Amino acid sequence: MKQLTIFIKEATNEEPIQTLETILMKLDGIERALVDIDDGEVKVTYDERQVGHEKIKNWIEQHGLHLLN
């Protein structure tokens, strides 16, 4: 298992966090997603044999959420 840490603009409010968790769990290979509501930090644990970090990032953006650099 690998871990990806990303920051998502909308991940500081409850509704977008629930949306984020739902869309991530629909992606094959995602084991879990932990969200820190203080700063929008999201830690995603995933199986790199099933999904890569770029696909995870693209999947999030396709669902209308914004990654912060």
Describe this entry's structure for a reader.
The chain is α+β, with helices and mostly antiparallel strands and 69 residues long. Helix content is 32%, strand content 32%. Strands 2-3-1-4 form a four-stranded antiparallel beta sheet. A hairpin with a 4-residue loop joins strand 2 and strand 3.
Radius of gyration: 11 Å
Order of strands side by side in the largest beta sheet?
2-3-1-4
Number of helices: 2
Instruction: Note the beta-strand portion.
Output: 25-35%
How many runs of DSSP E, i.e. beta strands? 4
What general outline do the C-alpha atoms trace? globular
**Unreliable stretches covering 5 or more consecutive residues:** none
Could you state the order of secondary-structure elements as H and E?
EHEEHE
The helix fraction, in percent, is 25-40%
Rounded average pLDDT: 92
The CA-CA distance between the termini, in Å, is 24 Å
Oligomer: single chain
Based on helices, strands and strand pairing, what is the structural class? alpha+beta
Taking the sheet with the most strands, its summary is: 4 strands, antiparallel
Briefly summarize what is shown:
With 69 residues, the protein is α+β, with helices and mostly antiparallel strands. The chain contains two helices and four strands, in the order βαββαβ. 32% of the residues lie in helices and 32% in strands.
Kindly list the characteristics that best describe this protein:
69 residues; alpha+beta; 4-stranded antiparallel sheet
